[in-house]
Design a protein that fits this description.
Elements: E1 4-11, H1 15-25, E2 29-36, E3 41-48, E4 51-58, H2 64-72, E5 75-82, H3 86-95, E6 106-107, E7 113-117, E8 127-131
Parallel strand pairs: 1-4, 5-8
Antiparallel strand pairs: 1-5, 2-3, 3-4, 6-7, 7-8
Bound molecules: cobalt (II) ion.
């Protein structure tokens, strides 16, 4: 069902400071920056091998990442697994009784299709599944 880890999502308060750490100190290449209104974030992708780190700055306090920062502070937010067929993956998860946040995929960063599973269904780990767009 899952091909590999696509990215780890990190919630940050200061995006420029986070970029300075990941790009400047860790030497990862910044490959994409985008405001994703549907998720209430400004997001940055950095390459690490075939995978990515996704830095997430909330667009406001009343967004999922804004509420996460208010309650837990900056840090690891979610893990994302890549799938070649997100509709099929969601069907499989539903059939396995896994509770979903997104019953249908929505548009994520770089035109990908994404859906989140409920953290209560995945051992407290907020889990995203990603089908990359054809271009990526
Ligand atoms: Co993500």
């Amino acid at each position: 069902m899952f091909a590999r880890i696509d990215h780890t999502g990190v919630a940050v308060e200061d995006l420029d400071a986070a970029i300075a750490l990941y790009e400047g100190s860790f030497g990862m290449r910044l490959v994409h920056r985008e405001t994703v209104e549907s998720q209430g974030v400004e997001a940055v992708l950095l390459d690490v091998g075939e995978n990515h780190v996704e830095l997430l700055r909330p667009l406001g306090p009343d967004t999922p990442v804004g509420r996460f920062l208010a309650s837990r502070g900056p840090g690891l937010h979610h893990v994302a697994y890549q799938t070649p067929d997100i509709a099929r993956a969601l069907d499989g998860l539903r059939a396995a009784g896994v509770r979903l946040i997104d019953e249908t995929p929505r548009i994520g960063i770089r035109g990908s299709s994404v859906a989140f599973l409920h953290p209560a269904a995945s051992g407290g780990v907020l889990t995203e599944i990603v089908q990359p767009s054809k271009e990526h």
